[in-house]
Amino acid sequence: MKELAPIYFIATVWGEKFRDMLCEFAIASLLSKNNIAALKNRDDARFVICTTRHDFMQLHYDPIFQLLLAEIEVEFLENDEAFPGEHKYNRMSRGHALL
Fold first, then answer.
1. Can you tell me the distance from the alpha carbon of 98 to that of 30, in angstroms, rounded to the nearest whole number?
2. Radius of gyration of the chain (CA)
3. Would you say residue 68 has pLDDT above 70?
4. Largest Cα–Cα distance in the chain?
5. Rounded to whole angstroms, how far apart are CA atoms 48 and 9?
């Protein structure tokens, strides 16, 4: 049997609004029966979140995030708070570069 490549799901978010959207839409969708649960190589898969330390800790209070933790290994990459005057697209690009 051919070895399957590991799958990495990635997200970069910050702030309550986007944390909530991540859980309500993206993670909830990934938790449906034909997504993460259907992965044949789930042990090699990761969900990598690039966010602030505060936002990562706040995610742990969301029940959907707790379900994600039970299904797949979650890794955290720290993306500092916005630099003074930094445009949100630059911050998002920084997060993607880290991922």
1. 22
2. 14
3. yes
4. 52
5. 6
